[in-house]
Batch of 3 targets.
Target 1
Amino acid sequence: MKLLSVASECAPFVKTGGLADVVGALPGALAPHGVQTRVMLPRYPALAGVAEGASQVMHYDDLFGGPARLLSVRASGIDLLLLEATHLFDRPGSIYLSPQGGDWPDNVRRFGALCRVAADAALGGVAGWVPDVVHAHDWQAGLVPAYLKQSGAPTPPCMITVHNIAFQGLFDAHNIGVLGLSGDFFTPDGLEYFGHLGFLKGGIAFADKVTTVSPTYARELTTPEFGMGLEGLIAARGGDVTGILNGIDTEIWNPAADADLPQRYTTESLAGKAASRAAVQQRFGLDQTADGPLYCVISRLTTQKGLDLLIQALPALVGDGAQLALLGSGDKGMEADFIAAAHRYAGRVGVIIGYDEALSHLLQGGADAILVPSRFEPCGLTQLYGLRYGTVPVVARSGGLADTVIDANPAALAMGCATGVQFSPVTRTALEQAIRRTGDLFRDAAEWQTLVRNGMRQPVGWEQSSLAYLALFGDMLAAKRDGTAA
Ligand code: ADP
């Protein structure tokens, strides 16, 4: 089966969050099942080196204001289709945000172009290669199904995966013409979102199948609390919507072979984790003498992630004898609050503002527990890395966090199956209680070792989920063949 995967990010080339990890890991996870994936993404400046030696497979004299070409190259084991368009993607800084703050003002054209070219490629634009299935990711690829539909030609079936419904790609309605899409699509059951053009809305409306990244988030998305205005449409798509849990790349994230750790370790030889713990304490300026748990956070700093609650809960955390090492960036106010906390609780709270992949590995290796107090979390990857590294997840009971962590309640402890701590509702008080509960577990060395080992043994790779994607691709192909809706 030939698969065209369309996204705005893909690890290890360009990453701002979990989307990139998933887009980068799926080709390798699907390959053993006979799926040959090509990942299409913009040729940002960061990919200039990767594009060297690439061959041109499509060309446009004018793609929304300038020339463009599609390049084909294989790098880091992934077959890439890179959309090169200087006027859209050759600019410094963030792939989404302008240095002046806020989104790039022409994001509608930038990602509209990605969708348009993906649809052209799906319709046979690349000589000698037509995908059997198209897989669009998030709002940046949300218009692919609309472009396919507009072609009027027989098209491959298209799936869209919603990695986070909070990001919908909403733009002024007049852009529908700018993007060359028919006004007929601008209806409440099509591209219109309360008077705006909605990329993700269109994707959910027109794709043959909709998936999201955990079963609980799939259910949550049908409710006003989590659906962000799209709950009605998602509920209406009914059985076409499936939650498939993200996996992680268990080769990249492997404490037994991780070059970013001072000493590797396994479930059988956990002693090596202590070397990483000491390295984290040193890097974050934390006392080596504290005897409570060392928590880490690796995250975008946003209210979605509930980290404002963590700032409020810091007195309780420090009061419990614990330490915190936080790596993150995002909301400027929150960055300032955490920096201030690091001064106030010197030696107990260490903060590094920034994005550092290698340091995130060291933190997973060295911390005792990882805090993920998200208000909503479609899947969440850092708790999965935590499980793999014996770093006990302490998480809000939401979305994929609810699906991947088994709470250390008395019954689960008695059965010996607990892997972490969950709390609900997502409030300061509940977080503080979770921190105290974690401290109590930590002080019971035998109980803690069981939690750590249970987590490390939990399957967190792609084995199950790749089969679930495969089954849906098969359903879509069968439905196309039969001429029925998938
Ligand atoms: P989201 O996609 O909502 O940001 P996820 O938990 O799904 O959250 O994925 C976040 C990914 O980004 C993980 O791979 C995490 O390790 C990584 N990450 C987040 N912040 C940082 C940071 N400051 N430095 C390094 N990696 C980070």
Target 2
Amino acid sequence: MSHPLTGIIVAMQEELEVILQSLVKERTVQRAGMEFHVGHYADRPVVAVICGVGKVNAALCTQILISEFHVQRLINIGVAGGLGPMIQPGDIVIADSLVQHDMDLSPLGLPKGQLYRLEVFDFKTDPHLLELATQASAQIPQHKHFVGRIVTGDQFVANPTQAQQLYQHFDALACEMESASIAQVCYLNQIPFICIRSISDNANTGAHMDFAEFTPIAVANASTLLQNMIPLCDSVPHVV
Ligand code: ADE
């Protein structure tokens, strides 16, 4: 049985390292300063790549995965800052909706986060991949998991006032720096996309020192979830 090609995007080296431990690599391709690792993960064909931190890196990388590698679906995993008061480091947040919180055309009358002349406010993740990610996260019982909105911006949020505003204004559970731009590129190319983040720090309490301590745990959680999820994806419709 042939399986669809899945793109796996992470932002940081630490996030890729755990994936590479289980990736049977066939070749590495360099594009735009990024290394695309082509191979098999859990016996399914994948291309895994570090896009770098921030929205431009993430968008560029996503378009390369789609145009050059012809990935048929895309998974973004990594760490995020917790926003909601119930979210703790180590918890998993699976995005059903993504918004760029630093997009602000409010002087032109648009709500914060709204992109210019785009018919949608937020980018919804693929419902099938969302369901599978939820099933896979249930297999990691030692940490809570949540499904909800993640917001993205070119800022590391470590200020409790800003975290509170993001939580209240966007009704967001977590913040990070890539996934809404990946979602925008997938939306424009009609590629199914899911974003799974594990909480590395409490942006909501300003405890950004958590980042160094919790990133290894968060990275391990996200990668376990990916390993559980990839085989489940065989049943999901994908672009041909
Ligand atoms: N990624 C992990 N923690 C984050 C934070 N607090 N702000 C933005 N991106 C993050």
Target 3
Amino acid sequence: MSDEERRARRPQSMSRRYRQGLILVGVLCVLATLTAATLLFQRSYTERVDDTLHRLCATLAAGYTAQGTGDPDALAALVPGTGLRCTLIDADGNVLYDNQTTAPLPNHADRPEVQAALAQGSGSTIRESETMDRETHYYALRVDTPAGVQVVRVGQDVANIWGLSADSLPLLICAVVLILAGAAVLSWWMTRRLVQPINRLAENLDTIEADVPYEELIPLARTVQSDRKLREDNETMRREFTANVSHELKTPLTSISGYAELIETGMAKSEDVPAFAGRIHKEARRMIALVSDILQLSELDSTRGGHPRTAPAEMTPVDLAALVKETAQTMTVNARKAYVTLQYDARPATVRGTRDQLVELATNLCDNAIRYNRPGGHVELRCATGPDGCPYLEVADNGIGIPQESQSRIFERFYRVDKSRSKETGGTGLGLAIVKHIALLHEGRIDLQSQVGTGTTIRVTFPKP
Ligand code: ADP
């Protein structure tokens, strides 16, 4: 990855994003509020203007009608000297009087408010002014005078929404600037309050779950905590394992070294040499078995990545029945040596898995059933598909059995119920740990039934293929 890419991938600043968000929200709120306020104000303002226009026009029309002359001058005398525009129009649309101009005005018959007043008695309209930011509101009333039907019309220029906005623009700018400044300070303070507990959290990861400041962070804290625990457990396990391995290797090595020294220095009588060589051979075989189990466990560990994981993609359907037959045949020699009868009952069952690992699992279980047995004992290897459709593999013996208190521990690495018996029979203390590992890789479940003096049955149930 180039430096540029790495820089581009750098995480964003949470404080900065949060601050920007707050400021943006602040500004948007101000703009929205001011727009809504301006709109509402303009509406109520024009309503009031219209209302005043109506009342003024009605007063003018009433005064003018009361005079009973139909003379425009009579209306001119009534018109107030305000900025109002007041016009008198006859039934043909001719302008008889306008208080803002003496120049002749064009015919007003086409004006909607005039047409409406002549037809319905009153009419109103709003027209754009010459300037963009203003509009003129007109209200017209029909009056019946001796001179005939006429229309009294009043009009007033009113600032429209643009005009009002332009008026409030300085206020708007001031408000935005103030809000921006306020939002900057407030957001800085709030961001600090938000981010500080998170920073503090990172300082003490041991109590992360108890100290978590926001409920949204609980999943993260949980993951961190469990990850740490897993790492610590792994570390402890690794340390214990190394210590155990060293110890297990040291014992045979010490014997080998001792016997070899006796032979080397000539202290061993010549008739003892074959026996010593035999012991050296036996200890070396034990070491080879131990090293090969360790290698196997470490290989399984690397497949598993230290975590129980779903089965790897290379798993294929494995015929358990064929596997059971094969294992039974391979173990027959061992069984004979231990004066144990070995039988199998292989019913159709298929497991999705790695064949070599499943062979190892069956062999280890079978080997234990033979080794922890008595002369004349019996071992049976079974496989079948359960009523729930799950295939299983089972090894049952009528051997020495496992005491209740040890049953939960026998799958631990190097745990043995009877250390000397295990060593005597060539056990490494890792067989069941390997079984557990392989079962885990296949998402299998191990069930153990055992009673001292009666025997042991271990069943591994696999998921449906
Ligand atoms: P080992 O190499 O010592 O046999 P394992 O991991 O295979 O190690 O087994 C752990 C211990 O569990 C054994 O030392 C033994 O005490 C006990 N054990 C395992 N299988 C049986 C069994 N079928 N009957 C009685 N005890 C058993």
